User: Which sequence fits this backbone?
């Protein structure tokens, strides 16, 4: 069990709690850098999705987890970033300029959406963002001069300063680097007055105002920053998916992003990354299980002679092959997470770490709060 | 289902995206929905359900007298649109009512409302078509079964999440909804089913074709709303429900069985959703995703009416239904789906609490 | 120059006149208490001063300036801080974060600087932390620094409310029922703290209180309210022996 001995205020402000924590993160960074050398192109591609979803997760975590503003239409910003970036690339803009413009446009849209949001709370804000998402999706379909509507829009591979970065590993490194930058910038904001102001808005708007927090300004900043990150993620998304169509950026995608932050763990940046890992890797895992479960279970049935095991394997395999099952599995996991581990994957991770670090003195009720009654959120 | 490059993106459910091109008549009469209204003349196929939006009813070419003048025809069309919009709006209103009931009591937004509607329609289908029961018996069975299911849902799942932030519980209902859709897909498959009803006739009033289907929807909604209104204002149970919605702890102290009340509210809400689903079934035909599109619009309707107000839910629903129909008939394509949302945004910008809602503020 | 004055302050909520032409002034460096039965409008006056509500009529003057229409988030920078009767802390943040947030009014860093966490921002963070630590020492909250507010007991939360208000470095401190929910010992501590705040920190205090012992012990002047209307103003002894006040509030 390690004791943290604090000798200066710097330690509370630093990015990493101490040398050991920094060491672990360095190890993680090393693993990320070395991964493409050991994995095949398919897996490298799947992990790139983790990075892209990670940026989306950070964006939503800032808005929903830290500022407490629920947005049901965030896929719209992803789409705006994607289409803007693709459009400018088509018209010959250099990659960085195109990216910058995409982020700028997305930010402006975020501010525009945020403005009416200043007067709305909770559920009304959610439906307003939902409406915005639907309208933007329609705009993607109809504004054919820019988005080519249903015909779709091909996106070329990224070329930065003449260096082509379209290969699986090059794009992997690009996305990893951008995710790292995003995490760093956001972490800086969160340990500075802006981040504290966001938390204040989430917990008590009236008290925040009494402390001098200008609600309108900080809510707008939250929307703008969140939209900017989504724009960045959208640009990378466009490259990854290589062919844009309007029916990608639906409300279902928005809900999937929200699922990301919840399952990951609301209220921490780690949660965003954990959630990204979950959302990006679950479909390939299901795909793998679909074939491997019946195969392995029938092997087991063969060797042990219990035919039931083989039938069970076949039933599970058939079930996983049916259309629409993936959504159900996502739903089931979401329900289980909310019921059993409201703190999400990151919360469970913290508990596990605490268990091992305080072994055998771990108390299960460390994280249990007293039984809570429903607090009305209509009056906040 | 999941392509290699897109494997990580989407929850690939078989939802016809709201914007996909119109599909041929699901009742497989072979006529595309791009054909003029009434082109499908199969008996009982009153309309082509447009999968973009449930119940964008297209007028049946009735056998009534055709108005000779152009102006007369415009008036008839307008009246027809109004009736259809009213019917659609009633469905939205019923589902919005379910939203508002649960919200008023427990401050949760139940995003699985649309999927309860879908399950109700399927149960009715099973009762009427597979088991051969009478329509009304099937109706009753479906309502009772799904109401009980709703109460069960509350007792087993929702009760455990009391105290968690509202947002987390909303996501919980979204997850439940996805599970219901998958369950329906696995149990009944992804085909489209029809529900035979006793309302397949039409009446002609002054050149306006009144389909009994739509009249049944409007009448059913009115009856249901009347019953609920009486229940909430004139019974102790209804008042107890209001009490628990405002202060759970105080309600406990007053001896109100809070948990039972919540389950009851869920049961009522699920029952209302089922009724809506069965009324809607002949219009849009039963399939797994019938609930999703309805729920989104109904949610918008509930907010438009002022979340937390029962007459508001109905008013909001009818408004959305009418807007949808009028926009679909007059504005270029694409506005049909977005016009209700544009109106909603405009309303929220001007009056953030909706039509009948009240703006609350914490007293410090 | 008037340090603080309310002139003819009135507010209607629908048909109810919660505060009716209340006028009083607070001199710099004194402890001024408002007493009265529940519903008399005391907290409403605080909400008016914090600009959470807009008065229907009347004026508020602070340091010679009219602050009647100032937006609520400017009040802290002007030097007015308040505590809330029903604790309005930031539940899901640590105590330290709550106090650091109170320094927001004195924030000098810009968004870009914070995003890049420039050395100047780092330096300012340390300065804020030092200011906050002084208050923590003053109120003996060291052991609760890293605790989340949800996990803290009621008494500690009350003190945290006070600490948070002090961290804004106010000139005028509004205390809304500082001793409600505290036992005898804690109330004594509170009395000492109020005295220290007044004498050591030189902060003027405007207080709402029900505990008459505390009121007599620390107040310089008292205003009694009933149904939104002023009954009597004066020293604690004068007000407590005023017949109207006894009839409406103190009993006997």
Assistant:
């Amino acid at each position: 069990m390690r004791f943290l001995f604090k000798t200066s205020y710097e330690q509370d402000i630093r990015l990493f709690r101490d040398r050991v924590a920094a060491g672990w993160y360095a190890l993680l960074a090393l693993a990320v850098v070395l991964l493409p050398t050991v994995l095949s192109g398919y897996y490298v591609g799947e992990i790139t999705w983790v990075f892209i979803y990670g940026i989306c997760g950070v964006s939503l975590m800032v808005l929903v987890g830290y500022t407490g503003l629920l947005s049901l239409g965030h896929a719209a910003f992803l789409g705006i970033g994607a289409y803007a970036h693709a459009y400018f690339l088509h018209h010959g803009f250099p990659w960085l300029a195109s990216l910058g413009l995409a982020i700028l446009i997305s930010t402006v849209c975020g501010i525009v959406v945020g403005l009416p949001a200043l007067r709305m709370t909770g559920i009304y804000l959610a439906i307003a963002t939902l409406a915005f998402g639907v309208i933007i999706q329609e705009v993607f379909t109809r504004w054919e001069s820019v988005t080519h509507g249903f015909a779709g829009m091909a996106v070329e591979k990224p070329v930065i300063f003449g260096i082509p970065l379209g290969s699986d590993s090059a794009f992997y490194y690009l996305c990893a680097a951008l995710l790292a930058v995003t995490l760093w910038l956001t972490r800086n904001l969160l340990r500075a007055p802006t981040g504290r102001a966001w938390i204040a808005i989430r917990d008590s708007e009236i008290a925040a105002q009494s402390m001098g927090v200008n609600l309108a300004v900080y809510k707008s900043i939250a929307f703008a920053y969140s939209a900017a990150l989504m724009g960045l993620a959208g640009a990378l998304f466009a490259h990854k998916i290589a062919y844009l169509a309007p029916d990608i950026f639906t409300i279902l995608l928005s809900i999937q992003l929200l699922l990301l932050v919840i399952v990951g763990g609301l209220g921490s940046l780690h949660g965003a990354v954990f959630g990204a890992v979950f959302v990006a890797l679950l479909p390939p895992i299901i795909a793998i299980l679909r074939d491997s479960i019946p195969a392995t279970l029938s092997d087991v049935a063969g060797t042990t002679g219990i035919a039931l095991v083989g039938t069970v394997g076949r039933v599970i395999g058939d079930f996983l092959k049916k259309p629409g099952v993936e959504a159900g599995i996502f739903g089931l996991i979401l329900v289980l997470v909310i019921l059993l581990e409201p703190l999400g994957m990151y919360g469970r991770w913290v508990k596990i770490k605490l268990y091992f670090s305080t072994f055998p003195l771990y108390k299960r009720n460390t994280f249990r709060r007293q039984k809570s009654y429903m607090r009305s959120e209509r009056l906040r | 289902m999941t392509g290699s490059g897109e494997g990580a993106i989407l929850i690939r459910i078989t939802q016809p995206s709201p914007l996909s091109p119109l599909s041929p008549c699901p009742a497989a009469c072979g006529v595309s929905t791009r054909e003029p209204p009434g082109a499908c003349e199969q008996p009982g196929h009153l309309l082509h359900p447009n999968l973009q939006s449930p119940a964008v009813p297209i007028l049946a070419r009735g056998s009534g007298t055709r108005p000779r003048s152009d102006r007369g025809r415009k008036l008839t069309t307008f009246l027809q649109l109004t009736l259809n919009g009213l019917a659609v709006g009633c469905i939205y209103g019923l589902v919005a009512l379910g939203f508002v009931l649960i919200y008023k009591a427990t401050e949760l937004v139940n995003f699985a409302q649309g999927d309860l509607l879908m399950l109700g329609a399927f149960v009715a289908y099973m009762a009427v078509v597979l088991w051969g029961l009478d329509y009304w018996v099937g109706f009753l069975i479906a309502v009772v079964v799904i109401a009980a299911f709703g109460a069960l849902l509350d007792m087993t799942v929702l009760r455990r999440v009391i105290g968690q932030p509202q947002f987390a519980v909303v996501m919980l209902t979204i997850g439940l909804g996805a599970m219901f859709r998958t369950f329906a897909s696995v149990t009944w498959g992804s085909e489209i089913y029809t529900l035979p009803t006793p309302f397949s006739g039409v009446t002609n009033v002054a050149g306006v074709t009144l389909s009994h289907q739509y009249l049944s929807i409007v009448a059913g909604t009115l009856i249901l709303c009347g019953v609920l209104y009486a229940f909430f204002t004139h019974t102790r149970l209804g008042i107890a429900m209001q009490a628990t919605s405002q202060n759970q702890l105080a309600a406990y102290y007053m001896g109100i069985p809070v948990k039972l009340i919540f389950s009851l509210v869920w049961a009522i809400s699920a029952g209302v959703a089922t009724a809506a689903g069965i009324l809607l079934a002949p219009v849009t035909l039963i399939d797994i995703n019938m609930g999703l599109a309805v729920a989104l619009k109904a949610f918008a309707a509930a907010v438009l009416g002022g979340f937390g107000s029962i007459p508001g839910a109905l008013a909001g629903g009818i408004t959305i239904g009418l807007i949808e129909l009028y926009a679909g008939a007059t504005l270029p394509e694409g506005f049909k789906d977005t016009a209700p949302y544009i109106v909603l945004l405009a309303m929220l910008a001007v009056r953030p609490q909706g039509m009948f809602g009240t703006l609350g503020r914490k007293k410090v | 120059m008037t340090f603080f004055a309310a002139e003819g302050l009135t507010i209607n909520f629908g048909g109810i006149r919660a505060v009716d032409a209340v006028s009083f002034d607070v001199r710099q460096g004194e402890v001024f208490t408002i007493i009265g039965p529940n519903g008399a409008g005391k907290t409403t006056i605080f909400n008016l001063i914090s600009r959470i509500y807009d008065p229907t009529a009347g004026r508020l003057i602070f340091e010679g300036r009219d602050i009647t229409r100032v937006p609520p988030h400017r009040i802290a920078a002007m030097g007015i801080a308040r505590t809330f009767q029903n604790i309005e802390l930031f539940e899901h943040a640590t105590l330290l974060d709550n106090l650091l947030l109170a320094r927001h009014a004195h924030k000098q860093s810009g968004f870009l600087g914070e995003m890049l966490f420039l050395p100047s921002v780092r330096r300012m963070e340390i300065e804020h932390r030092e200011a906050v630590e002084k208050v923590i020492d003053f109120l003996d909250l060291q052991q609760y620094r890293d605790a989340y507010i949800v996990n803290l007991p009621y008494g500690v939360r009350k003190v945290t409310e006070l600490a948070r208000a002090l961290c804004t470095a106010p000139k005028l401190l509004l205390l809304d029922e500082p001793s409600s929910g505290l036992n005898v010992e804690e109330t004594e501590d509170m009395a000492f703290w109020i005295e220290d705040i007044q004498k050591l920190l030189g902060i003027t205090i405007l207080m709402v209180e029900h505990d008459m012992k505390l009121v007599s012990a620390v107040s310089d002047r008292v205003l009694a309210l009933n149904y939104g209307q002023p009954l009597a103003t004066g020293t604690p002894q004068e007000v407590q022996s005023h017949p109207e006040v006894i009839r409406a509030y103190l009993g006997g």
